[in-house]
Design a protein that fits this description.
By secondary structure, this protein is an alpha+beta fold. It contains 4 helices and 10 strands. A hairpin with a 3-residue loop joins strand 1 and strand 2. The N and C termini lie far apart (74 Å).
């Protein structure tokens, strides 16, 4: 019983107010937390520490590719595709002089008349392809014309990065009198 009494007396002795009449004294640390800026910083640090740990969420899959693969005007249709060179059969890549690399894609462009969509391809009077990075940097692609029995096909290689979207803008004109055909496609590739 004397032990309990001593504890109560020591508790009371330590928790009495000073007879000076001053109010509650705030320590320096508590005063610092009362500052709006430091208080917000303390809360942010607490949230950051609370969010640490555990396994990271799985990486979401790439966005599905939904581009139609063509653009057209009243008289002409332009077909285009952006394919990884590693997905091409080696004999086809070799016939065009393309070295297959993990981070290299092939842009293919063909023009034809709308009257005969499965018919022969036609040459372009004007044709330009530009790659646009996420930062907005534009780079004109070097298009090479390849002729075969069905007509010309235009090819260009494009360097790509893992899961970084790349946008390709294509502008073509079949004849002086025909309107310009414009296509814009965005692709994202997994290089794993």
């Amino acid at each position: 019983m004397s032990v309990t009494l001593r504890r109560r007396q020591s508790w009371a002795a330590c928790n009495r107010r000073a007879p000076s009449g001053k109010g509650l004294q705030i320590s320096g640390f508590t005063r610092a937390l009362a500052s709006p800026v430091l208080g917000c910083a303390a809360v942010a640090l607490g949230l950051h520490l609370a969010s640490c740990g555990g396994s990271p969420a799985p990486v979401p899959s790439a966005a599905p590719y939904t581009d139609p693969g063509f653009a057209e005007t009243a008289e002409h249709r332009m077909h285009y595709a952006l394919t990884m060179t590693r997905d091409l059969p080696s004999e086809i890549a070799g016939s065009y002089g393309i070295v297959q690399r993990r981070n290299l894609a092939l842009l293919t462009i063909a023009l034809m008349t709308r009257k005969s969509p499965g018919g022969p391809r036609i040459g372009a009077l004007e044709l330009e392809a530009t790659s646009i990075a996420l930062t907005g940097e534009r780079k004109t692609l070097a298009l090479a014309r390849h002729d075969d029995a069905h007509g010309p096909t235009y090819l260009a290689t494009v360097d790509v990065r893992h899961r970084v979207p790349i946008t390709i803008e294509i502008r073509a004109r079949a004849t002086r009198a025909s309107p310009e055909i414009v296509a814009r496609l965005t692709r994202e590739f997994r290089l794993e």
